[in-house]
């Protein structure tokens, strides 16, 4: 179950494109694709910092570190779904939020908690929900964005039943700040997980993140 509260402007994937063009380059849909789990309610080298292994179309991705569980009834996790980039798709991760309490919990912001539109420290990589039919403005067989993505979003919450989970896939793209296709190295992604609703305290939030290695 998703609800909305306020509208704000988000930039992802590098240099910002004017907000007036948002509808042309991928405004955020009303509802993101949750994948239910249990009872969820809701290298030929082209440059010094990039690589594209011959035969795979791109480098491989591994999870190198994850933060400790936050002091919340929510337990975040991340896993690699597609390790390597190919001509058909970029690497893909899956983020999962598990409610360890017996009562339903609402968390926000609904996309950020799943690392959608979250950019790594350094600004070279970003995570995006799987593209629709129109795709993202990215170089073919490279997965480097050719334009920064400007999205007008609603502040969303996700309700997760007691003992349930919410899971979503996110694809890995290089931003416009990268020199080339999916630059190799280690990158950290971080977001804030906040409990929402009438019973939530103002300090019921925590940052959580993970690091990946692209090689």
List keywords for this structure.
215 residues, mainly beta, 6-stranded antiparallel beta sheet, 14 strands, 0% helix, globular, disordered N terminus
Notes on the structure:
- The protein has no helices and 14 strands.
- A hairpin with a 2-residue loop joins strand 3 and strand 4 (50-52).
- The chain has one domain.
- The protein has 215 residues and is mainly β.
- The termini are far apart.
Helices and strands in order:
Blueprint: E1 2-12, E2 35-37, E3 44-47, E4 50-52, E5 61-66, E6 74-82, E7 92-99, E8 105-108, E9 118-119, E10 125-128, E11 149-160, E12 165-174, E13 185-196, E14 205-214
Antiparallel strand pairs: 1-11, 2-12, 3-4, 5-14, 6-7, 7-12, 8-11, 8-13, 9-10, 10-12, 13-14
Summarize this structure briefly.
This protein is mainly β and 215 residues long.
Class based on secondary structure composition and strand pairing: mainly beta
Number of helices: 0
Query: Could you tell me the number of beta strands?
Result: 14
DSSP strand (E) fraction? Answer: over 45%
Order of strands in the sheet with the most strands?
1-11-8-13-14-5
The major pleated sheet works out as: 6 strands, antiparallel
Described by the principal axes of the CA atoms, the overall outline is globular
Domain module count: 1
Mean pLDDT: 78
- The helicity comes to under 10%
Which series of helices and strands comes N to C?
A: EEEEEEEEEEEEEE
What Rg is obtained from the alpha carbons, in whole angstroms?
A: 17 Å
Distance between the termini: 38 Å
Low-confidence parts, pLDDT < 50 over ≥5 residues? Answer: 1-11, 15-33, 35-56
Biased composition (Acidic residues): 31-48
Region (Disordered): 27-72
């Amino acid at each position: 179950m998703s609800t909305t509260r306020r509208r704000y402007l988000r930039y992802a994937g590098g240099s910002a494109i004017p907000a007036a063009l948002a509808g042309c380059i991928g405004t955020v849909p009303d509802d993101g694709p949750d994948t239910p789990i249990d009872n969820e309610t809701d290298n030929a080298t082209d440059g010094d910092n990039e690589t594209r292994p011959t035969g795979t179309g791109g480098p491989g991705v591994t999870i190198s570190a994850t933060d400790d569980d936050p002091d919340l009834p929510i337990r975040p996790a991340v896993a690699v779904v597609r390790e390597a980039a190919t001509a058909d798709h970029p690497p893909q991760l899956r983020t999962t939020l598990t409610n360890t309490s017996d009562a339903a919990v609402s968390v926000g912001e609904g996309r950020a908690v799943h690392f959608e539109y979250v950019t790594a420290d350094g600004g070279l990589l970003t995570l995006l929900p799987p593209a629709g039919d129109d795709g993202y403005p990215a170089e073919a067989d490279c997965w480097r964005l050719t334009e920064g993505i400007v999205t007008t979003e609603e502040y969303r919450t996700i309700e997760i039943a007691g003992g349930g989970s919410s899971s979503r896939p996110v694809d890995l793209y290089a931003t416009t700040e990268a020199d080339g296709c999916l630059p190799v190295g280690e990158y950290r992604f971080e977001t804030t997980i906040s409990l929402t609703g009438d019973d939530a305290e103002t300090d019921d939030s925590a940052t959580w993140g993970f690091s990946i290695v692209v090689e």
